[in-house]
Write the structure tokens for this entry.
Amino acid sequence: MSYAYEVLQEVIARNPGEPEFHQAVKEVLETLEPLLKVRKDYQRAGILERIVEPERQIIFRVPWVDDQGKVQVNRGCRVEFNSAIGAYKGVLRFHPSVYLGIIKFLGFEQIFKNSLTGTPIGGGKGGSDFNPKGRSDGEVMRFCQSFMTELYRHIGPDTDVPAGDIGVGGREIGYMFGQYKRIKNAFEGVLTGKGLIYGGSLVRKEATGYGLVYLVNEMLIDNKRSFDGSTVSISGSGNVAIYAAEKATQLGAKVVTMSDSNGYIYDADGINLDTIKLLKEVNRERISEYIIKHPSAEYHQGCSAIWSVPCDIALPCATQNELDGESAKLLIGNGCIAVGEGANMPTTPEAVNILKEGKVLFAPAKAANAGGVATSALEMSQNSIRLSWSFEEVDQKLKDIMVDIYKNISEAAKEYGCEGDLVAGANIAGFIKVADAMLAQGIV
Ligand code: NDP
Ligand code: 2IT
């Protein structure tokens, strides 16, 4: 039994009922095998046993009062996973599906993703089972204030710096920042994704989607392909999806699908992003409304069939495990040449294998969506020096980071005998830096 396999069995036994966390750990540990064969010092120092166990997990009650005067109670949590290379960094997710297993999978992935960015940030993640959908601004504000009233004591600009994810956008970050500042009496860069007029960074809003396209573009160029003239299928219609669509369109692609949790739209003429931004960013409406303005487009109830739409490049940007084995077969059958993960772990392990066997180029989330957190790190730098960089400056830094990530993960894959396997390359390259920092810092 290999060292990695033994640790994986222990993770499954010690963390029952957390399948997403098991899935994320399994993928990383399996791909580390070639590295662990040559780096026996990792086993001697118990690196794997330590890296799979969060440094700290905080679970707390979030009571608030709804518009009807009824008391509501949600559960909040923050998993501070690893601080070997920097303060904990990672988002807060507000979605009814949130439980510890999801936050732990996200937090675990964040360690390696953050390491890949080349910036000094550790891994953490948090969230709540609160559902902002259908809630008034007042309700969202009261929830966010209650959430921060507990969270504030665990975070800080040099300790743990949360940001936004599913269900946490500019509005929620604003309410949480306001409450933190009020309690701490300190205006500091404790959250990223802040509004531009109170310490936010230009490009942070666009960063994950743009970064995804920058990285996939490197992968395409490396394989003598390009976005120009290609048909792109995107799932989701949130922050990541919208700006992935924007950048892909700028590079000459036609984006033909987008979705929300109710269904997807197909617009053969190319999706009109102004309509999507109005629907989603301003009015918080359902994507089904798109066809009212664009009657030649189609709306389909349910999300899974989105991958049956023929495309050259697929960018899953909604949520975990949204692209399964069947979908992978459909994509291959329709001639898809590349998949780039905008969401975290959107492709099931079965689908990843099918895509690999089908020779589809595959950019894994840890690398492909790292532009968001990388730009969060740039926001932290700007907060520290109390200066703001221009859009062009931040965008250029983001582009350079994504190009570097692609180079590092493809070289790592090659060095460890799995050329072209960017899943392995990303896991190995992200892991080495954290593991070596842990070695240097002793048994802590
Ligand atoms: P948003 O909340 O802005 O958008 C999420 C989108 O995905 C919405 O269209 C939502 O539809 C859809 N969605 C959510 N849950 C489901 C589900 N269970 N089934 C189908 N569709 C669903 O989130 P983001 O765009 O910020 O995040 C999307 C993904 O990208 C997540 O996996 C996140 O972890 C990841 N990510 C985000 C980063 C960021 O900077 N924001 C950085 C890196 C990764 P609906 O509105 O109906 O719920
Ligand atoms: O999954 C992610 O990397 C994010 N949602 C962004 C994290 C961050 O802290 O900006």
User: Anything to note?
Assistant: The longest strand covers residues 71-82.
